[in-house]
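Record 1 of the preview.
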Amino acid sequence: MHVKDIEQQNQHILYREPRKPRLLVYSSAPWKWLRAIVLLGALYGVFLLIVLWSFARLPKLEHLAAAKTIGEDDALDTHLVLKVPNTFEELNKVKDTLRMYKDEFEMDLMLFLCISYVFLQTFMIPGPAILNILFGSLYSVSKSLLIVMAISTVGTTLNFFVIKVALKDALTSLLPKRIGAFQAELSRHQDSLLSYMLFVRLTPILPHWFVSIASPVVGIPYYVFVAATVLGHVPMNLIAIHGGATLSSLHRIQDLYTFKNVMFLICVAIIALIPICWKRIWPYISRKKKVLL
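->
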């Protein structure tokens, strides 16, 4: 090796750039999750307290039995059931108890049922379908449907803003590919967004829980989300309410999905698909007309 090469090598060793210090980069994802958990826990706790308050307003079962003006108070007290039903037999007993509450304390019962419905829908907890059946067993079909649509609007609104405020950043980091794919699909239907969202709600093309959590994240307008959710749930709610009117003949949840009800859901989904198909076909029809003219 030449002396010149050795000098250049030594010079390179002596004067090489100092190693840059390693930077500790902390991901913001843990902080997003911490913020989401704290906010969601606080909101959940507040809503749960409101539900418990509305439940505490209901008179105790002993007072309900004493309020009935029949001569079987002692026997009646042993048959009253007020709990989350696990079977249709228990659901029938709960229905009978709620009917007695409705006769004596209707406003207190209505307040409890509505607040419970809003709570379940806000936090996407299973249970609104059971409440739909109970509403159908307590009131007429038209009145039950109006009540359910009103409280469903409130629950859907709260669900939208809870996710947007508390979970948006956390969900973006947790489900980036699925949310990105959903956003890309929505971009193809911007001119018929309400019709597309209504179709998604009416069919099992996408899991309903995913549509609920992803819609506020991808920027779907509030009015589109609420309208599509409330209107999209009407067919299923109507079937559950009709089932409540004949609750004594039901033995399992599958009994609601008769051939007639399934065909009804399919027809409604096809009707919701018509505006989307029409907007895709119309440009082709317009071009054909221009060619003929």
